[in-house]
Amino acid sequence: MQRGLLARLGAGDPDTERDPERSIIEHLQVLLNTRRGSSRAAPDYGLADLVDMIHMFPEAIQTLKMMIRDTISENEPRLRNVNVRHVVDDDDPLMFRFEISARLAEHPRGPRLRLRTRVSARGVDVE
Question: CB of 72 within 8 A of CB of 100?
Fold first, then answer.
């Protein structure tokens, strides 16, 4: 499904033009799974390495929450007023779950977009 930047610029993406929320979710999936510093063109793009965060549990929750919020605020201009809330998962204490809520920049008074994330050793899943 992922297409290169030049292909998207040249042809446009009718699916994301009709559904900007889907486009935002796809971008957040990439953004939150990119290690900060892996792009020479945008060295601040992505999250810091999460491996070291596991050793700081439970303090890591607050740090990770702020990292996710700041990363989205800095790199997803279609979202405003980004909030991240930790969601306790009694079934899997080693899984970090967060709820992300924000307003679409083009509809600042509209309903909030709400997404759920799971942070595990495999990466970040955005739903």
Answer: yes
